[in-house]
Amino acid sequence: MTVTIYDVAREAGVSMATVSRVVNNNPNVKPQTRKKVFEAIERLGYRPNAVARGLASKKTTTVGVVIPDISNAIFAEVARGIEDIANMYHYNIILCNADKKKDKEIRVINTLLEKQVDGLLFMGGAVTDEHLQAFRTSNVPIVLCATTDENGTIPSVDIDHEAAAFDAVQTLIKQGHTSIAMIGGTLQDPANGYSRFQGYKRALETSGLTYDENLVRIGNYRYESGAEAMKHFLDLPVRPTAVFSATDEMAIGAIHCIQDNGLRVPDDFSVISVDNSRMASMVRPQLSAVAQPMYDIGAVSMRLLTKLMKKETVEQAKVVLPHEVVMRQSVGSK
After folding, report:
1. How far apart are CA 93 and CA 62, in angstroms?
2. Does residue 331 sit within a domain?
3. Which structural domain range is residue 232 located in?
4. 123 phi and psi, to 5 degrees?
5. What is d(CA 224, CA 251) in angstroms, rounded to the nearest whole number?
6. CA–CA gap between residue 5 and residue 202 (Å, rounded)
7. For the HTH lacI-type domain, which residue ranges apply (predicted)?
8. CA 173 – CA 161 distance, rounded (Å)
9. What's the total number of domains in the chain?
10. Are 178 and 271 found together in one domain?
């Protein structure tokens, strides 16, 4: 049978109110009484009912996290940052994978809100009207993590994705490359897709280079799509000399395609990406990349959410973290 607070009170010879105060870390309990209650809890194997406590306090000390792809190392790093700060402030997290599918994202958001989470962190693609409607019906704080909404009305933590792509392409241009291809993400994705594509175009225009749609291929962020895009570039009558990839995983697919065709990086092609995941330093040659502070994005998002949940003053609800170009062996001079 389930052990109840009544059983613990009887075992310890105290009132149920005293057991409740001990369980909830109320300081108004004598040390000797506290010790008796904890000994009774241990003997009986009592576990407090978090749901019941949440109903009583209207707080569950739980945060819902919607993640696009739990198998992606980038999002795993963000989740680690979230988890560390959540632990620091004594919150538990419920992590839900949404597969970058809008319908599933909306369903997961509603499910988490039904579970009475105290706050919600959303990592995803485009924040659509359907997302905004789900957010508006929530009575708990919401923070966008590694993404933003078009109007900037919801608190968010991210980098400037257009500037990150611009800096990556400018790095290639400064090395003398004038024919630069891009492996992009879906343009419906405002951050990893559209913004990085805009940064690519702006870098070309700023340097007086012509945009060529034959040098752009849209992938799905996966290794295979990077390799497939690179195969297209290799088949062009006039090949580019450098490739900018919107993500590390697609960049590594491109590098392996180059090598499988008897060519070398960076001697025949230079490759650079945005992300700087652990994979960037594992591939050979090591991948040059614009580093997103993924752990920090997660940590700062969770800290912002804790402030909102505690109704603390928030000076900046839209946080843009810095990025940097990390040069390795995949980029060479033309």
Report:
1. 5
2. no
3. 161-291
4. -110, 125
5. 10
6. 65
7. 3-57
8. 19
9. 3
10. yes
